[in-house]
């Protein structure tokens, strides 16, 4: 999104209101502008993100129940379009595709011809981005576009994307965004932000692009009643959050407890299945597969999501560096909550709780952190190396 | 949260140059040095690197491997990689041999502190110690060449090489040339038969016997198995070489080489872009932790 603090946007500091029927018009306006509108849909018993063509595609009347290791969608007998909490998908799959051809190689007379394929960048409008997800996108912006090397695949998709936020009006039991200071309310970083109330949506404008889209809709100024109701519903989400993680000094706590016995306990439960890293909206690890045709004359270098829970993720000539589940879980958690601060100046966790719900054995990172915090086993004085056992066996007669 | 600001376009990090193996020099069992030439002359002219950096060598259909450059940074048009056969990519390169067509991305990573070795004051020349284990001498050879280039501006230069057996001593055909340039070269092996008249034992025992005159101003660079480097640091410390003067080159799985794929992390460091060469104190804590 291109946010310019222009007079026009400032003028729209006042909030607008659109009726529920206008949602289809919003989707149509975006489609007319060439956007592929991606939003929530019910698929295979979950609310996922996929292309939506009309408001009929949205999960109207659906909610969900989430617990560690559990996710179920439930009918809520209301007209609400956005009365659900986050499912397994995140917007990362559109900005950082789970499978993408980075380069192709063809056999030619001189040997091999390597090419980076040109592509038409998909132009996405994301409908229904929650506050923690906006923050997750900002975190991936930092990872992919603000280092010494820029990922062109992410960059082009991100620059073309339009973000329509939907404010949370309810929280799942797995949510802990208030601990991570990422939500539940979006205050910036969006083009438009909607709060769903009984008869429509309160609309906040965040950019000129958002303002232009609002201008194509039948809107009115939000009344006192609209705004009070929207605020009350947003406040309800805050009140429903029951999970917390104490982040005070968290980086140092974890990095000083790399040999804590809790890592062994969690490794007894962890299946190293990679689910947490797949559903995480900030996890960015990838690997490249060589995909060849039958003759081996045409090769595609296909980047796919990878996970620090895969044993061969850390493979070097002598074998995998992280050769057990303990070391792999420790890598994931300390990267997410500790070393991410060193690398990217923020936590890598936004408190969305997906890794808790989608862990098959219900491992809850907030609990793991609390256990380490309750019994810190400070390892700053790491074991000293023993002197080398074998020294010179015989006196050399000359240097080689 | 601020708005997304699109940075200026950059060359794609996946852009791969077409290269060929010009010649192969067998070094030790399972190790050979490959002389690589660019197919495109323009790319060849533009190519430069610093001692300690690495390239991603690509065998289409098999994959990429991060390989240190083992030739002189002064003549980047002669580009050599010394490779031990260890996995699919390196074995395929060994089988392909002379004339094989490959891909190359690079150079990547940090370099050895070459400039810090030199001093204009003839009374304050620095001593430089290079400690290598096995294939670890390959990324150190460019710094040895760099020191030879400006030999007069460095004080004592010592190269300590450790290998499993005498036939595993890398670049042993060059030791005499290095000695002629005024570099002390000492080698040691883990085990040997009766023909070997040199040292037997760990490389740290050579370091212990150096009798450094001004250890506090000595620079030490090391590359080899991590356990070796940990003992080298410990020995250097007992020789009163300051830890801040010690540099290590580390290895992890390098997949993208540009800090985007996450594979090569060691604590907070991405070894591909923050390393592979580090001042030891920066990675000291992380090197002590098993399986980090």
Structural class of chain B: alpha/beta
Helical residue percent of chain B?
10-25%
Largest sheet strand order of chain B: 10-9-8-7-11-12-15
Q: Largest sheet of chain A, if any?
A: 8 strands, mixed
Question: Can you give the mean pLDDT of chain A?
Answer: 91
Number of strands of chain A: 16
What is the CA-atom radius of gyration of chain B, in angstroms? 19 Å
Report how far apart the termini of chain A are: 66 Å
Protein chain pair with the most extensive contact, residues per chain: A-B, 81 and 71 residues
End-to-end CA span of chain B: 33 Å
How would you describe the oligomerization state of the chains in this entry? heterodimer
SS strand fraction of chain B: 25-35%
Shape of chain A: globular
Taking the sheet with the most strands of chain B, its summary is: 7 strands, mixed
What radius of gyration of chain A results from the CA coordinates?
Answer: 25 Å
Strand order of the largest sheet of chain A: 3-2-8-9-10-11-1-12
The stretches of 5 or more residues of chain B where confidence is low (pLDDT under 50) are: none
Q: Kindly report the average pLDDT value of chain B.
A: 95
Question: What is the general shape of chain B?
Answer: globular
Helix and strand element order of chain A: HEHEEEEHEEEHHEHEEHEHHHHEEEEHHH
Give a count of the beta strands of chain B, DSSP E runs of length 2 or more.
15
């Amino acid at each position: 999104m291109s946010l310019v603090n222009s007079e026009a946007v400032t003028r729209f500091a006042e909030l607008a209101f659109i009726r529920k029927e206008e949602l289809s018009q919003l989707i149509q306006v975006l489609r007319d502008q060439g956007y592929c509108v991606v939003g929530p849909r019910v698929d295979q018993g979950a609310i996922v993100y996929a292309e939506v063509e009309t408001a009929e595609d949205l999960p109207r009347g659906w909610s969900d129940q989430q617990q560690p290791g559990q996710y179920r969608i439930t009918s809520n007998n209301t007209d609400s379009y956005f009365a659900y909490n986050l499912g397994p998908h995140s917007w990362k799959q559109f900005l950082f595709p789970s499978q993408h051809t980075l380069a192709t190689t063809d056999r030619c007379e001189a040997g091999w011809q390597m090419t980076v394929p040109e592509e038409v960048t998909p132009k996405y409008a994301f409908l229904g981005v929650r506050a923690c997800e906006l923050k997750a996108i900002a975190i991936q912006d930092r990872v992919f576009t603000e280092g010494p090397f820029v990922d062109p695949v992410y960059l082009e998709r991100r620059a073309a994307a339009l973000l329509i936020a939907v404010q949370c009006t309810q929280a799942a039991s797995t949510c802990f965004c208030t601990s991570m200071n990422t939500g539940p309310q979006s205050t910036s970083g969006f083009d438009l932000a909607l709060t769903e109330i009984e008869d429509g949506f309160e609309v906040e404008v965040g950019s000129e692009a958002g303002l232009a889209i609002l201008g194509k809709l039948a809107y009115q100024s939000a009344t006192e009643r609209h705004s009070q109701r929207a605020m009350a519903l947003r406040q309800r989400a805050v009140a429903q959050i029951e999970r917390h993680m104490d982040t005070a000094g968290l980086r140092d706590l974890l990095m000083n407890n790399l040999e804590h016995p809790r890592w062994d306990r969690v490794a007894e439960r962890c299946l190293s299945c990679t689910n947490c890293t797949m559903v995480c909206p900030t996890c960015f690890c990838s690997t490249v597969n060589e995909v060849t045709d039958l003759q081996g004359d045409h090769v595609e270098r296909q980047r796919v999501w990878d996970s620090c829970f895969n044993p061969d993720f850390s493979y070097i000539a002598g074998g995998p560096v992280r050769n057990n589940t303990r070391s792999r879980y420790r890598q994931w958690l300390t990267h997410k909550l500790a070393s991410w601060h060193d690398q990217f100046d923020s936590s890598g966790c936004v408190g969305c709780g997906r890794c808790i719900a989608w862990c098959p054995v219900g491992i809850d990172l907030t609990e793991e952190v609390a256990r380490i915090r309750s019994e810190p086993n400070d390892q700053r004085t790491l074991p000293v190396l023993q002197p080398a056992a074998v020294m010179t066996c015989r006196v050399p007669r000359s240097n080689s | 949260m601020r708005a997304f600001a699109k940075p200026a376009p950059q060359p794609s990090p996946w852009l791969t140059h077409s290269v060929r193996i010009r010649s192969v020099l067998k070094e030790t069992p399972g190790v050979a040095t490959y002389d690589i030439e660019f197919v495109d002359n323009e790319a060849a002219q533009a190519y430069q690197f610093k001692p300690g950096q690495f390239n991603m060598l690509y065998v289409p259909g098999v994959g990429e491997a991060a390989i240190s450059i083992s030739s002189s940074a002064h003549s980047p048009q002669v580009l050599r990689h010394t490779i031990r056969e260890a996995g699919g990519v390196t074995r395929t390169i060994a089988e392909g041999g002379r004339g094989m067509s490959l891909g190359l991305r690079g150079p990547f990573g940090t370099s050895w502190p070459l400039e810090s070795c030199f001093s204009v004051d003839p009374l304050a020349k620095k001593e430089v110690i290079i400690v290598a284990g096995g294939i670890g001498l390959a990324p150190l050879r460019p710094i040895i060449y760099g020191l030879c280039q400006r030999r007069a501006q460095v004080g004592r230069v010592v190269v300590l090489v450790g290998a499993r057996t005498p036939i595993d001593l890398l670049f042993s055909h060059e030791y005499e040339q290095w000695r002629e340039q005024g570099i002390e070269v000492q080698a040691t092996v883990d085990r040997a038969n009766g023909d070997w008249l040199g040292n037997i034992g760990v490389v740290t025992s050579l370091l212990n016997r150096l009798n450094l005159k001004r250890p506090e101003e000595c620079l030490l660079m090391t590359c080899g198995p991590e356990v070796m480097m940990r003992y080298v640091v410990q020995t250097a410390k007992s020789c009163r070489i300051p830890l801040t003067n010690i540099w290590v080159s580390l290895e992890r799985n390098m997949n993208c080489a540009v800090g985007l794929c996450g594979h090569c992390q060691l604590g907070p460091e991405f070894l591909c872009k923050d390393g592979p060469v580090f001042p030891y104190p920066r990675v000291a804590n992380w090197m002590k932790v098993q399986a980090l």
